[in-house]
Write a structure and sequence with these properties.
CATH class: Mainly Alpha
Number of helices: 5
Helix content: 55-70%
Protein name: NADH-ubiquinone oxidoreductase chain 3
Number of domains: 1
Keywords: Electron transport, Membrane, Mitochondrion, NAD, Respiratory chain, Signal, Translocase, Transmembrane, Transmembrane helix, Transport, Ubiquinone
Family: Belongs to the complex I subunit 3 family.
Structural class: mainly alpha
CATH topology: Methane Monooxygenase Hydroxylase, Chain G, domain 1
Radius of gyration: 25 Å
CATH architecture: Up-down Bundle
Largest sheet: none
Number of strands: 0
Function: Core subunit of the mitochondrial membrane respiratory chain NADH dehydrogenase (Complex I) which catalyzes electron transfer from NADH through the respiratory chain, using ubiquinone as an electron acceptor. Essential for the catalytic activity of complex I.
Pfam family, one: Oxidored_q4
C-alpha cells in the first residue's frame, strides 16, 4: 500500500475514533452557572449578545492586511539576490504604495476614528 494513502487512512481513523470517544465519554451536565455568559465570579452587567461595533472589525481587518504585508515582504532579502533585483524592488514598491494609499484613504474617510 502506498505510504501516503496509509498515513491518510490512519489519521482519518484516529480522528474519527477520538471524536467518537469524546462524544461517548463527555459529561454534559448543564447548570445555571455553566449556562451563564460569564464564569469569572461576577454577575453579568448587560447582555452578552450585544453586537460589536463595526469599527472593531475594521481595525481587525486592517491588522490582518498589514500582517499579510509583512508575510509577503518576508522573503525580500533573499529575493534581492535573484537575477533581476530591480524587478523585485519594483513589485515591493508597488505593494507598499498600494497598501499605503489604502491606509491614507481609510484615514481620510474617518474610518479609523473611534468616536464620532
Amino acid at each position: 500500500m502506498n505510504m501516503i494513502l496509509f498515513m491518510v487512512i490512519s489519521s482519518l481513523t484516529l480522528s474519527l475514533a477520538l471524536t467518537a470517544l469524546n462524544f461517548w465519554l463527555a459529561q454534559m451536565n448543564p447548570d445555571p452557572e455553566k449556562l451563564s455568559p460569564y464564569e469569572c465570579g461576577f454577575d453579568p452587567l448587560g447582555s452578552a449578545r450585544l453586537p460589536f461595533s463595526i469599527r472593531f472589525f475594521l481595525v481587525a481587518i486592517l491588522f490582518l492586511l498589514f500582517d499579510l504585508e509583512i508575510a509577503l515582504l518576508l522573503p525580500l532579502p533573499w529575493a534581492i539576490q535573484l537575477q533581476s533585483p530591480m524587478t523585485t524592488l519594483a513589485w515591493t514598491s508597488v505593494l507598499i504604495s498600494l497598501l499605503t494609499l489604502g491606509l491614507v484613504y481609510e484615514w481620510l474617510q474617518g474610518g479609523l476614528e473611534w468616536a464620532e
